[in-house]
């Protein structure tokens, strides 16, 4: 009888252990998906064209050159001409802005509007795995593609959004949709992502974001961010030094 009880107990423990081992790890899903949006790479540069459409006020297109590594990014405006030379620097959870003629950089919030529906933090490289605590809510299909649905909660008030519902492709390991939510639970805007770019690093080739479309939750206002000229690059020491931002 004792042997039979021990055998049953062993099977139960084994089964329980196997079920736990196969449960998807929300934090790992998020960390893997960050790479396709610039997170977790040693150094990367790309160009982004920001186009506001259907807004109540006409805004010009903006073209920015981005440089980033795991914890920092630098964006320099190339177009329109009147904003040329303006820079945005993000280091960890801090962000500064500079422009020609300004004596020293100004601290700003990643939540401040940049252009159309895009916030300052939307153009930086994505490190959701660092900035948010992830919880797996469920699995569901988005336009026929199986996804994990994650609930992301900001780890501090410096993050661009308080909460995000994030759909990550199970097959491609990239974020395909996001709802950006306020602290009170109100949906502020949504975004969808496309990945026509390819990037090679460490002997592997993987997709990289080519378009982000941000839709306001209450109006028809929409903004597209198109990414091009993406390449892994060694960035000089000092690229992300706030004391050199005005140079």
From TrEMBL:
Keywords: Signal. Pfam families: LolA_like (PF17131). Residues 1-21 form the signal peptide. The keyword Signal applies. InterPro entries: TP_0789-like, UCP028205. This is Uncharacterized protein TP-0789 domain-containing protein. Residues 72-245 form the Uncharacterized protein TP-0789 domain. The lineage of its organism: Bacteria, Pseudomonadati, Myxococcota, Myxococcia, Myxococcales.
């Amino acid at each position: 009888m004792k042997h039979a009880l021990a055998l049953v107990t062993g099977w139960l423990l084994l089964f329980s252990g196997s079920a736990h081992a196969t449960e998807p790890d929300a934090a790992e899903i998020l960390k893997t998906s960050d790479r396709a949006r610039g997170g977790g790479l040693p150094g990367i540069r790309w160009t982004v064209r920001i186009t506001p459409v259907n807004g109540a006020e006409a805004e010009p297109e903006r073209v920015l050159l981005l440089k980033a590594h795991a914890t920092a990014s630098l964006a320099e405006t190339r177009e329109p001409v009147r904003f040329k030379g303006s820079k945005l620097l993000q280091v960890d959870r801090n962000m500064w802005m500079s422009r020609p003629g300004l004596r020293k950089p100004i601290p700003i919030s990643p939540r401040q509007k940049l252009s159309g529906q895009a916030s300052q933090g939307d153009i930086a490289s994505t490190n959701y795995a660092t900035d948010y605590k992830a919880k797996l809510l469920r699995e569901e299909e988005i336009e026929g593609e199986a996804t994990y649905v994650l609930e992301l909660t900001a780890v501090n008030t410096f993050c661009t959004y308080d909460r995000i519902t994030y759909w990550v492709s199970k097959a491609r390991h990239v974020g395909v949709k996001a709802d950006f939510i306020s602290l009170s639970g109100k949906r502020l805007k949504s975004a969808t992502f496309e990945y026509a770019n390819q990037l090679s690093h460490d002997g592997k080739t993987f997709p990289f974001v080519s378009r982000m479309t941000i839709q306001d939750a209450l109006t028809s206002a929409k903004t597209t961010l198109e990414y091009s000229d993406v390449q892994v690059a060694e960035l000089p020491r000092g690229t992300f030094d706030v004391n050199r931002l005005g140079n």
